[in-house]
Amino acid sequence: MTPQNPKKHVKRTILNKITSLKCCECFSILFFVGLILTLCYWSESIDCFMVVDPETEPPQQTVIKSIALSLTGSIVFILILWCWNKHGRKATNSNKSSTSEQIEKATSLLSDKDVSNRIAGINMFWQVARNSKYEIDKRKILDMLCAFIRSPEMGPDLSDTEDISITGILSDVQIAVSLLTQKIKELKLKRDYRADLTGANLQGVILMDADLSNTILEDVNLTDAILIDITFTCETFTNTRLTLQQCKELGILNHKWIVE
Question: How far is CA 62 from CA 20, 50, 72, 113, in A?
């Protein structure tokens, strides 16, 4: 199973928006455009109806004619706004429903025994988070990825060597960690996100150019992890299992959780 093509999803969404316009909405738009393009004709029609000579038209008649045209245009314009607002609410509800369905599908893939399906689920999660306009959806997906990293045994069969990367960490977990620590800026979050990886076994994980400054690594096993050009604070590795060599490379002194 593979994640949904985002381009096809966008095309389908646009097509749904176009075909969802009802006849009255289309008629309102066409009527308003026609009114604007034929103002001169309407002006002459009103003159004929009121039997007024344009050269001797009194000011009162001019005012009445202008008011009539303005009211007609205003009513049609308000109707158009109402129709578009109604359509916008329908489109929003449709997008929310589509997002929920994609999250549900990705969740199902994430618990699959096949590593390729789990990776597909992770990528689908990330694609949904990037495309979503809602902060709550993005954070919900990030929370689910963090939960997966903390408890990867929920899906994979650890006896299958194909699931394991050359460094010893599960391939899907490696991808999830890389997304959270290297690609999170793609989501354009309004507020910083604290990735909670408490208790995760990240032995052998590869972190290159990763930002760990907002990552909770309480009781995390990072022994044998490859840490290159990472960004962290003085509190990042508190209560995190590291080797003495890692502490030296990171410049960490008096670390209490050194694993030999």
Answer: 41, 11, 16, 79
DSSP label at residue 207 = E
User: What are the φ and ψ backbone dihedral angles of 10, each rounded to 5 degrees?
Assistant: -65, -45
Nearest-angstrom CA–CA distance, 109 and 117: 5
The percent of residues in the chain predicted with pLDDT above 90, rounded, is 36
pTM over 0.70: no
Stronger pLDDT, 19 or 180, i.e. the higher one: 180
Percent of the chain beyond pLDDT 70? 56
CB 128, CB 166: distance < 8 Å: no
Domain assignments of the chain as residue spans, ordered by start: 1-99, 111-260
C-alpha pair distances (Å), 224 with each of 29, 112, 207, 236: 65, 27, 11, 17
Closest CA to 149 of 208, 216, 239, 214: 216
Residue with tokens 């009513």, as numbered in its chain: 75
